[in-house]
Structure formats: C-alpha cells, structure tokens
TrEMBL record:
Full protein name: AAR2 protein
High-level lineage: Eukaryota, Metazoa, Ecdysozoa, Nematoda, Chromadorea
Length: 153
C-alpha cells in the first residue's frame, strides 16, 4: 500500500490538493491508479479484515475530502471516487459502520467535510458533480439515519 512522506503527512493546510497530486505523481500521474489503491484498501479491509486496509482506506477518504482545488481540476476523478465510495458502502450491511459512525468518528466528519466543500463552491463546480454529490449524500443519510453536515459554529 502507498504511504505519504513524513514531510507531507504533517504539513499544515486546509486544501490538500497538492498531496493528491503528489500521490498521483507517484503512480505515474494516473488518477485511476489512485482509485485502484482506494478500492484495494477497501477490499483488504472488508474481505481480508486487515486493519492496515482500513487505515489506508480511512486516510484516502480523508485526503480526498480535504481537496478543495482538486474538485475543479480533477472533476472526473471525484465523480469516479463518489461512485466508487457509493458502491463500497452499498456492499456493506446497514449495521457495518455503527461504531465507525459513532459521534465524532472520522467517517461522519470527513464525509461531511467533503460534502460541504462541494456545496460551498456551486459556481465553479459542474452541475454533474454537484448532483451526484447530493445523491450520494442523500443515500448515506438514509442508509445510516444521520445527517452528514458540518456542525454549525
């Protein structure tokens, strides 16, 4: 499995689009390979029940959710990511993420962050990306009976 360099792992910043680009660069600038790594981590986690797969899957979701600029520059990647994540979650039983979705858990907060990034930029994102994001968010909210919104300050 892939890993980030120590330097980029702890670099501060809200937009991690540059980290996504570095990851893709390490895979020959092939964003399909980034998605393949995401899928592989999920399979290792779900079928192999290996914690390292879960940890990598979690890190990739966090990375993808924190890429604001890349939503525009790599729209096709994010459309494919959304569909991949949708089908991954669809494969899981409804109670599979009960502990993972507990209050203050990474999946709830991280996906809320991703959905907020898309919702905050309607004028620069394509209608297709906005619509698919809204559908995936609605599916997750129905499946897990919870809202995926950022807490209001």
């Amino acid at each position: 499995m892939l890993s980030f360099t120590e330097e980029s792992k702890y670099r501060p910043g809200i937009d991690n689009s540059d980290r996504l680009d570095l990851l893709a660069k390490s895979l020959g600038n092939n964003y399909n390979e980034v998605l393949a790594e995401f899928q592989y981590a999920f399979v290792v986690f779900l079928i192999g029940q290996v914690y390292n797969g879960y940890d990598q899957w979690k890190r990739l979701i966090h990375l993808f959710s924190s890429c604001r600029a890349a939503l525009v520059t790599h729209e096709k990647f994010f459309l494919e990511y959304l569909m991949t994540l949708f089908f991954q979650i669809k494969q899981c039983p409804d109670d599979f993420f009960i502990d993972v979705l507990s209050k203050d858990n990474f999946l709830s907060a991280t996906l809320a962050w991703f959905f907020a990034n898309v919702e905050d930029a309607p004028e620069i994102l394509s209608p297709e990306l906005r619509a698919k994001t809204a559908k995936v968010k609605a599916f997750f909210e129905k499946k897990f009976n919870r809202l995926f919104d950022l807490p209001s300050d």
